[in-house]
Specification:
Blueprint: H1 8-27, H2 37-48, H3 60-71, H4 76-81, H5 88-109, H6 114-130
């Protein structure tokens, strides 16, 4: 937050929601049990949000919109930016969505921590290219 500002942290979370949704959809391309974003992925994530006591139900339409934008291959940050700055209550729900997507990815990969390893490898390779 110190380096980029408080507003950039929620935007980064929205970006990661888009990336992870893309990974989930890409991972399913070869499988017979393809995860349909509209009937499987998005409803499953939204249904699990009430498990987080701090998740404000009023934020669900916006986080659903971000998931829909991601499922349609859109830039989630650009899509969300058109509605202005992300308020703290919404930012928190985006964090919960990211958590749920991470859990789903790890479950589908049948490897706990799979997305963590993938993200570390990605960030390491980005750092190596800059260095």
């Amino acid at each position: 937050m110190d380096a980029y500002g408080r507003e950039e942290v929620p935007r980064g979370t929205v970006f990661l929601v888009g990336v992870l949704t893309g990974f989930l959809m890409a991972e399913q391309d070869d499988g017979e049990d393809r995860l349909d974003p509209l009937s499987d992925l998005i409803p499953a994530v939204i249904r699990r949000l009430p498990a987080f006591e701090m998740a404000d139900p009023a934020q669900v339409p916006m986080v659903t919109g971000v998931l829909m934008a991601a499922a349609m291959g859109m830039d989630t940050v650009a899509w969300r930016d058109q509605f202005g700055q992300i308020p703290p209550k919404e930012a928190l729900v985006h964090s919960f969505v990211l958590w749920l997507l991470t859990d789903l990815f790890d479950s589908l990969a049948e490897r706990p921590g799979a997305i963590d390893r993938l993200m570390r490898e990605t960030f390491d390779s980005m750092a190596a290219k800059r260095g």
